[in-house]
Amino acid sequence: MRSRGLWLPAVCGALIVLALIVWGIPWLTRDRPDVTSTPTPPPFSTVTPISLAPGQRACSSKVAFSPDTRSLVVLAAKQEGPTPPLRITARAPGYHAGATVPGGYEGLTSLAATVPGPQRSVLGEVCVENTGRRTVQLQGTTEGRIQNRAVTSVDGEPIEAKLSLILTEGANRSLADRPGEVLDRIAAFKPPFVGSVSLAIFGLLVLVGVPGGVLYAIWRGLTGADDDSDDAGGLRT
Amino acid sequence: MAVAVPVRARPRLRVGAIPRPLAGLLVACTLLSIAWTLVMAPLQGPDEHNHLGYVQQLAETGSGPRFSATTGASWSTEQRAWQDWGNLLSLIGVTDARPGYNPVEEQRFRRFEDSLPAGAREDGTGPNPVAQNPPLYYGYEAIPYWITRWTELPTRLLFMRLANVPLYLLIVVFAWLSAGEVFGRRRRAQTIAAGSVGLLPQLAFMSGVVNPDVLLATVWAAFAYVALVAVRVGPKPSTLLGLGGLSALSILTHGRGLAIIGPLLIVLAVMLWRARPLSRRVVGWTLGLLALPAAGLAAAIAYSSAHGGTASLTGEATSSTGAGTLTGFVSYLWQFYLPPLRTMSPQGPPYGYRQVFVEGLAGTFGSLEIQFPLWVYDALQFAAALGLLLAAGIVVRRFERLRGHGPQIVVLAGIVLCMLAVLHVSAYRDLQGPPFDPLLTGRYLLPLVTVMGLVIAYVCVNLPRRLGSLLGALVLTTFTVLGLCGLGLTVARFYA
C-alpha cells in the first residue's frame, strides 16, 4: 500500500467523522415522541370536524395496541366556548382501559388520555365519549390520502370522516434509548433474514463501509499520479 | 476540455480489472443503495404504491393495469391488504403518521397471505395513475417479482428494490467511462465525476425504491457515454446501434425519455458533419439507427394507447392542460431561474431552480416530506453558485483549448438542454390549468447527472492540482455525509 498522499483521505475522513458526530449525537439523543401506532394521522390539509353531542360516543376500530402504549391522543377541532369533559377508552380482547380528559381545553389542541398498556400486542378499538353538557368538535378527516383500515362510527353508525388518533408511549424518548425497538420496527413486514441483529450488523457495515469506500476512492483516485499506471488496461476505453 | 483526446483504438472493456477508485465507489454505492432499500418504509418512494401495482399486474397477468376505471381496483386485493395492515397509504407524505410496525398488524397480514383468495394478486387492473408509462422498467422489475413469487408481497417488494442496485452501479460506471472519454486517462477526473454522480443523495435514495426514474437515469448515462464515443470514432455500426438502441430504451422507459430524441439528432448531426463526405453505407447505417427509436416509439405508443385511456404516453413530458403563450413561457422561465421583474406576473407557486436543482438533487426523500434543515440547502446553493462561477471563469480563460472539444461540448450541452426544454415546457403547460402545479422535481434531473459529474470534474482538474483534488474530495465527502444523514432522517421519520 502506498503511504504517500494519505493526507487527503485523512482530512476527508476526519471531516466525515466530525460531521457525523456533530449531527449524529443530537440525532441520537434528542427526545422525540415515541409513537406506537397512528390509526388515523391528523389531516394533511383540511380538518373535518366530528361533532359529539352530550352522551354521544365516537369509536375508531382496528386499532393496534402494543404493550408500550400509554397514551391515547385525539385532537380537538376549532370550537367556541367552554369545552366538555371526555371519556377516552381502549378496548380489545383481554384489555380494557380508560381515562377522562377534563373539560376546558382549547380548540386545536391534543387531548391525551393516559392508560395502562395491554399485556401483549392486540387489535381493538378506541372510543371517545362526550360526558359533558355541551357539544364537542373533534378533528377528523375525509381526505382521500388518509386511506386506512380504521372505521369511525358515532353511536354505532359508521361515518365518512375518520377520527384522528395517535397512540404513544406517553413520554418522549431518544433513539439512543431504544435502538432495539427502532430496529424491530424497521424489520417489520420484512423477510425473516432481515431482523434487528442483521440490521444492526448491516448498519455498522454502512457506517464503516460507505465512508471507507469513498476514502479509498479518494486515496487511489485523487492522490496518485493522474494516469494511475496501476490500473492500466482497466475498465475504460 | 482539459486535455485533448486523440483518436484511439476501438473501445475496449475489461470488466475483470476494475480500477481501484471505481471499486471503492461501487462498494460505497452498493451499501448506500441497500441501506435505502431497507430503511425507506414500504411504498414511500415517489408513487411507489402505483409502480408496485403496475409491476404486480404485469407480472401476474402479462398485461399492465389501465389508467382509466376498470372492473378491478387501483391495486390488487393483496396490495390493499398490505396497505391497510401496514398503514402505508395514510403514511405517504404525512409526517405524523407511522407505518404499521406492531407485531399484531404483521400477524394479521400474514394470516391474510396464508389464505390468499384466488385472483387476489391479479385484480389491480386500474385505474392506476402510472398505467400510461411504457412497460420496460416494469418488465425488468417483474423479473425479481416473478423469481420471488412464492414469498409474501413485502419480500417481493424488497427484492424489486434490490434489483435497482445494478442499474445504479451502471450509472456510476458510465459516469466513470464518460469522464475517461472527456478527460482522457485521468483517474482524478474520473473519480470526481463518478463519485459526485454515485454519491448524489437523491440518486442513492431513488435507487432504493421502485420507480422507473432509476432506469431512465441509467439509460441516459449510457447514452452520454456512447454519444461521447460516437463523436470520437465516427459513424460506426456499433456506436450507431448503441445510440439507436439506447434511444429506444429511453422511450420505452418513461414519457420523459422521449426527450432523448433531441440529443440523438444532435449527436448524429455532429457525427455526420465530422464524417463528411458521407458514403452510402454510412447513410444506410444512420437510417437503420433511426429505425430503432422509431420502433421503440411505435411500441410505446401502442402500449400507452392500449393502457393509458385519456392519458398520453408522454405523461410528465407534456401536459394535458393549456398550451399558454410564448411570452408567458419566457416569463415563467425567467422567474424559475431569476427574481421576477416588475412587469412580470407570478407564474404559479414560488418554485424555481433552488427547489428543483438544489433541494431536489441534494435530497428530499420519501414523498418529499423528508428534508434537510434549510441551512444545508442554503450552503449547497451557495457552493453550487460558486462552482458555476468558477466553471464559467475557467471556460472563459481556457476558451481556446475548449474549442478543440467542440463536438463533445455540443453533445453534452445537447443532452442537458433537450431534457430541460422538455421539462420546462411541460411544467409551464401544467401551470396553465388546475391544479396549477408545475410537475417538476429534482428526480426528473437524474438523467443529467453524468453531465453534472463531468462539470464538477472539469472545474477540479482545471484548478491547481492540490486545490483541485481537495475540492473534488470535499464534494465527495459532502455527498457522503449528506447520504448518511439522509438515511438517519429517514429512520427518525418512520420509526421514531
Number of helices of chain B: 20
Q: Helical region count of chain A?
A: 3
* Largest β-sheet summary of chain A: 6 strands, antiparallel
**Strand adjacency order, main sheet of chain B:** 1-2
What is the global morphology of chain B?
A: globular
Quaternary structure of the protein: heterodimer
Largest sheet of chain B: 2 strands, antiparallel
Write the layout of secondary structure elements.
The complex is a heterodimer of chains A (237) and B (496).
Chain A: H1 7-29, E1 32-40, E2 48-52, E3 57-65, E4 71-75, E5 86-92, E6 95-101, E7 110-114, E8 122-130, E9 136-141, E10 152-154, E11 157-158, E12 162-163, E13 165-173, H2 179-187, H3 196-222
Antiparallel strand pairs in A: 1-13, 2-9, 3-8, 3-10, 4-7, 4-13, 5-6, 5-8, 9-12, 10-11
Helix pairs in contact in A: 1-3, 2-3
Chain B: H1 20-39, H2 48-61, H3 77-85, H4 103-114, H5 136-147, H6 153-162, H7 164-183, H8 187-198, H9 201-206, H10 213-233, H11 237-253, H12 261-274, H13 280-308, H14 326-337, H15 353-363, E1 364-365, E2 370-371, H16 374-397, H17 399-403, H18 406-430, H19 449-461, H20 465-495
Antiparallel strand pairs in B: 1-2
